[in-house]
Amino acid sequence: LDGMTLILAGDPDLYDGRIFVRGQTENPLCSRKLNSLLSNGSDYQFAILYAHCNVRFEQPDTIAVTIVIQRHPMFITQRADAYDVRCTYPIGVRKVLFLFKIVKVASHVDISELATTNTIVEKGVGPSCSLTVTNEQDQMVDTATVGEVLKLVLAVQPNDTYAILPRNCYAINLETSELYSLTDQAGCAIDPKLFPEWMYLHSWLAVAIFNIFKWPDHSMIRFQCDCSAYIESSPKVCL
């Protein structure tokens, strides 16, 4: 036998997602969009080739591989699943027995120090922006688990002078330098299921509460926003 085939019961929620062997997201033989795998209009069939997909041989008779199923087209989110799949081929038995042991695996994200861009320059005391990541207890964090609730907090000082508008926010893959837009030029969320609209606790303080996500096979992520400061209340135009 040269591989195994996984059959996933049809689920419309999976249609826009991806399935891949962990560590093989760039290998077209081991990473596929789920909508390309529909076999009969209802089930998804994913073939794992032993010669190409980084499987593990566990003595004396078991082949193991870790499979990731992500529902978002690009990112690993809290709704993704990871499974250890094992096929056992008993030695000396002609009839092949497939034994599947599925264990859900957790993914982790390392969040680096954060960068902000100040878009206003003035003589004298100008605005100073800060961008931080905290947990639900408002403690600053630099590591998190996929799906964990975090807060992205953008503030401007002096807060008795300026109001704030977070524009052009990005998630940045520190290992590949890939950028993914979270908010647009107007400060509005582009993919609200991944990253929501900002909430304004004060005119000078904005917070976005979201479930942390990651790129497949990459765990270092940075968040960056343009910090637009205003003398008066910042314009909020998101619908």
UniProtKB/TrEMBL annotation:
SMART domains: ZP (SM00241). The keyword Cytoplasm does not apply. It is a single-pass type I membrane protein. Its main location: membrane. Keywords: Cell membrane, Cuticle, Membrane, Signal, Transmembrane, Transmembrane helix. GO terms for molecular function: structural constituent of cuticle. Residues 1-239 form the ZP domain. It is found in: Cell membrane. Coiled coil: none annotated. One of its GO terms (cellular component) is plasma membrane. Pfam families: CUT_C (PF25301), CUT_N (PF25057). This is ZP domain-containing protein.
